[in-house]
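COMPLEX REQUEST
Ligand: flavin-adenine dinucleotide
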Amino acid sequence: MYDLIIVGGGPAGLTATMYALRKRLNVLLVSKDLGGQANYHMAIPSVEEQPAALGIDMVDSFKAELERQGFAYQIAAVKQVCRHCDGFAVHTEEGAVLLAAAVIIASGVQHQRLNVPGEEKYLMRGLSYSAVSYAHLFGGRTAVIIGDGKLALRSAAEMALVADHVHLVGPVGRVFDSPLGNKLRSAENVTTLEGYQVVEVSGDDYARSVVVKAPDGGISRVKADGFFIEMVLIPNSQIVADLVDLEPKGHIQIDERNRTNVPGVFAAGDVSDTYVERVLVAMGGGAKAALSAYAYLLPSL
Ligand SMILES: Cc1cc2nc3c(=O)[nH]c(=O)nc-3n(C[C@H](O)[C@H](O)[C@H](O)COP(=O)(O)OP(=O)(O)OC[C@H]3O[C@@H](n4cnc5c(N)ncnc54)[C@H](O)[C@@H]3O)c2cc1C
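STATUS: Structure written out below.
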C-alpha cells in the first residue's frame, strides 16, 4: 500500500510527485504519459520563438530527477478511483489495483477535435489549441479562432489585442450577449463568421487556410498565419465522478488547499476548478496538493 498515488504526469502531477518525494512519502505516479500538454508546442511559419523556458524543458528536468532518484512510475491509464478500507483503490485499464492512503488527481483536460480532413496533418504545424499562449507572437499576423462558446470569445478578444486581424468562426447568437461579445462584434480587426463550420484544414508544410461552410451551405476559404481550436475543454474527471463532487462542467471541486470534499482525495491542475489553464498555475496546484496530502497523512506516517 502506498502513502500516495498521483494520477497524471503533466505539470501538476509531476510537481506533486517531486514534492511528495521530497517529503519522503512512499508515492507512485500513474500516468498515460509524462509531460501531458506541456509536450505540445506549435510551430508557426516564419516565427522563431525563443522563450525563456519551454514546458518540455520542465518535463525533461523532472523526468531526469525521477530517474536519478530511482523512482518507479507506471505508464498506465487509470479507469477508476474508489474507496477501499481506510484508503483508496486505483484501478487501471489493464486490471491492476493499486492501493493508497491518499490520492491526487491531476489528469488534465481533453481538447475537442474538429474531425475534419487536414486536422491531423497540421496539428502543431499552424493549427493548435490555446490561442492565448501564442497571441504575443501574432503582431502583424492574422489568426483564425474556431469555437462556439465563451472560450472562443475570450481567445479571440486576447488575440485581437495583438494580431492584425482575427476571424472568429462558429459562435452564434446569445454567446455574444456579454461585454466581450459586444466588443468583438464592433472591433474593426475582427470578422465574426457566426454559425459557420470548418470543414477542412489545408496548407503546405503548415496550415495556411480553412474551408468554412456558411449556415446557408455556401463554401469559402479563410487564410491566416495560425488557426486555433477553442472549443469547450473536457476535464478528465470521469475516473472520480462517483467519488468526489464535480463542478457542472466536470471540473473537480477543490478548496484553496486543493482538497476535494472527500478527505484523502486531492486534485490539481486543469482537471480541477482552477482559474486558468497554464503550466505554472498547474505546477503551483500540484505543489499545494502534495503538501495538503502530506498534512493529511502526517498523523499516520
Ligand atoms: C497546444 C498547447 C499549448 C500550450 N501552451 C502553453 C504555454 O505556452 N504556456 C502555458 O502556461 N500553458 C500552455 N498550455 C496549457 C498547459 O499545457 C496546461 O495548462 C498544463 O499542461 C496543464 O497541466 P496538468 O498537469 O493539469 O494537465 P495535463 O498537462 O493535461 O496532464 C494531464 C496528465 O494526466 C494524464 N492522464 C489523463 N487521464 C489519465 C488517466 N485516465 N489515467 C492516467 N493518466 C491520465 C495525461 O496522460 C497527462 O500526463 C498549452 C496547452 C496546449 C494544448
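REMARKS: The chain has seven helices and 17 strands. The two ends are 13 Å apart (CA to CA).
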